[in-house]
Design a protein that fits this description.
Four copies of one chain form a homotetramer. Chain A has about 260 residues and is of the alpha+beta class. Chain A folds into two domains: about 100 residues, Sandwich (Immunoglobulin-like); about 140 residues, C8orf32 fold, CATH 3.10.620.30. Chain A is about 20% helix and about 40% strand. In chain A, strand 5, helix 3 and strand 6 form a beta-alpha-beta unit. The longest helix of chain A has 15 residues. Chain A is globular and about 55 Å long. The termini of chain A are close together. At the C-D interface, strand 3 and strand 4 of C face strand 3 and strand 4 of D.
Chain lengths: ~260, ~260, ~260, ~260
Amino acid sequence: MKIRVRADLVYRFDPPTDAIYKIQVAHWPGQTVIEESLTTTPEIDFIQDEDEEFGARTLRAHLSGEVALTYQAVVDNGVLKGLPPVTVQHDWNDLPAEVLTYLNPSRYCPSDQFGRFAERTFGGTIGGDRVLKILEWIRAEIDYEPGASDSETTAARTFIDRAGVCRDFTHMGITLCRASGIPARAVSAFAHQLNPPDFHAIFEVWLSNGWWLVDPTGLAPVEGLVRIACGRDAADIAFLTTQGSCQLVRQSVTAEAV
Amino acid sequence: MKIRVRADLVYRFDPPTDAIYKIQVAHWPGQTVIEESLTTTPEIDFIQDEDEEFGARTLRAHLSGEVALTYQAVVDNGVLKGLPPVTVQHDWNDLPAEVLTYLNPSRYCPSDQFGRFAERTFGGTIGGDRVLKILEWIRAEIDYEPGASDSETTAARTFIDRAGVCRDFTHMGITLCRASGIPARAVSAFAHQLNPPDFHAIFEVWLSNGWWLVDPTGLAPVEGLVRIACGRDAADIAFLTTQGSCQLVRQSVTAEAV
Amino acid sequence: MKIRVRADLVYRFDPPTDAIYKIQVAHWPGQTVIEESLTTTPEIDFIQDEDEEFGARTLRAHLSGEVALTYQAVVDNGVLKGLPPVTVQHDWNDLPAEVLTYLNPSRYCPSDQFGRFAERTFGGTIGGDRVLKILEWIRAEIDYEPGASDSETTAARTFIDRAGVCRDFTHMGITLCRASGIPARAVSAFAHQLNPPDFHAIFEVWLSNGWWLVDPTGLAPVEGLVRIACGRDAADIAFLTTQGSCQLVRQSVTAEAV
Amino acid sequence: MKIRVRADLVYRFDPPTDAIYKIQVAHWPGQTVIEESLTTTPEIDFIQDEDEEFGARTLRAHLSGEVALTYQAVVDNGVLKGLPPVTVQHDWNDLPAEVLTYLNPSRYCPSDQFGRFAERTFGGTIGGDRVLKILEWIRAEIDYEPGASDSETTAARTFIDRAGVCRDFTHMGITLCRASGIPARAVSAFAHQLNPPDFHAIFEVWLSNGWWLVDPTGLAPVEGLVRIACGRDAADIAFLTTQGSCQLVRQSVTAEAV
């Protein structure tokens, strides 16, 4: 599916501070960047890196004053398919060593505390079936409600609050999958048909020898997702990280099928 | 320095469960394994892996009943030196991309909550000087007290409790370094002259273009440390991780200069 | 119902410390103390108080070394009846001013965080019906498991862990009732037929112009409960509170119908 | 000191909800209400109560739509004096039974977690001297910063964040006093010379056979404080509590010497 994505970010960095953007489309197998452009006002000489494991790209600079950044790309995101229930769950011993990390608890996903709940609630199921049951539970039990959470909200808190946004849904999903013995990690993305349009947080699970993308909010079809960055949870995939504070001036993000 | 290390671990896995040991000496630049052996009773056919980034080695198997594991090695750990105060701290923009991850908060190190405290308390210092001030603060303010913490204790909790063991000291140190803009990560080790002898948790910071090991407890000299595993915090470096529960029968760990 | 209760508590207070026991049967309307005795070895000259609101009695002293305390009583606990579903829930405006306090969150019962969950889960019900639904939920969703919690465990944590003892069940019940607009408070008690016998923690709710006792564990019949102390949560009703630490030597508690 | 106080509160209750105001000057020994008036638009028929222990007064009603409330009073608050360092601290056994409650941890004041810190930091001092040392520590270590905390912030969190408002300073002070064996409780007040003027949260400690008011922020002189309500922490003294949500339209609070 060919998708045109665009992000306009205007932030004020006052006092000046180090900043890292993760907004460019990832170089990821099956996902092809057909064209892209990046412009800023004023002009910024970014340090550009690409993560070897995820193909995630970062832009770093010491920024001051108001900085307007526009990123555009046309991407073929390949053929992404929803997770089938029959997907196989592996024993720890059959997992590739490099995915074991994604069984560990992380800042926003204290999966070590959810073993009993996961077993009680999803105990009769494994693999793709279990992930789908987890997604079903999240959609039934958590309200999508902007403003109900903030940048410190963990899955433990969302579990109590029963409300959050895509980031919280993703943390809840990752937590319950890891607690179920299924490797899971966070992905940031552009999302076709997400309404209102914005950066999206989703996650992927390791089953049947591959990573499968799922959207716990159900707000955007998997087919229309364009990967940006990947990591253990929101701590790793924020689209803008700064050492000091910064102020949002305005922001818009779009993703449209071409 | 040549060091003979030995770990005897006897655990009971009942009911049977998947288990991962991280107890072998790492393959790490400057650290040479001169000889080593691994035996178990009963015999276990482990899946053995080695992490590319850290040279950390894992032993995986599905275990049942009582399993006694003995690991021995003679290691030359090279020349490890204490951190000098003059060590230079890098701006974010001067850091290698691959160490940026170790600025992020993690399960046991919520560094995002400690920015104000770090600035208030260590604000006039940077680099090696700052890390040494952090270590000084930890040794003055936190009591080394076995039993004061458990496997869920975070640095936020230790900061309140003012007591813990090497794992907690390490989490506290990592948290304050990351909150100070210094990449920091957890390391498990054998430690010469650690008393009582046990696996040790320490951490390392990225300064002056390299990782420097520090022991926040001050219980073992840096010169006598032998690396095992490395990661964001205790979630990544546990010497034994199991999917279900397991029972300690007995355990001893030693490290002696040859 | 006539019940003979007995508590034998042997603790060591080393170093010496101030201590408060709340173990005597309360002077409470409908509950009659027929006979009672209190002996200690060595002899202790306790300061004895009785709380005006609850008829709860406290024994205070500065204690040192091993202290063995035996309390015995025969009590007629009157006619305690289980909560009928038809019990009426009052609007805030119809509540007596003095019960409003029991709508507030407390140390172990952060009811302010559970409003959405309570409404989502028990939303269609009010009054006695709602309390019974809450008890049903607790018994279905929380495992009674000694060792799963400790003296710092809050209802927020039990909600995640899905396991605990009578104290945790009581905190969970109080939290969900307060979050539902129903005043609730903790009660310590001797409990006929509790197995294994021990001090019991239960709670009571204000409905239909009176307090109704409920046992969220379902382990002891309401008819056989003998009140000791009452308060917002475990912080107020502990059978032994000390300023420093103390060591359990042995303890036994019994309650038998006469 | 004669003080004229005034509170203008305009809130919107949509959907309608039960509400409790605690804004009237307390009937408290030494504090005399010379004149007062309460008006609302529209007219509301409040249920009015007065707490026996604290002389705190509550206004309750089921409210809908926009409600403007104006309360005015002229009060002689008597002669309030700052706490002298020589004030005596009592052993538990010398405390009146009714103040023991204020040694217990509460929703926002988990004093049970701060014993070690209190002893380490204030260990050489007792009584008035210790309370003054605690106040000095708070003023040196916590920044007064509106927006740094919210209605769920506990003293444990403020201890980490090192920032907050009067409510947080009060919770921090209560927590450290209780952890030091000194009964402490929260008080809401009008405060002469508070800038910017607002409702104020302070606390009082039991020493030398009486309660002594202290202002941990140091923003208002003790002499100019006019008591409103009292309790364990902010959960008990909020000036407006509602069962559902409500929306602030505008609010102003003043206190001026006559």
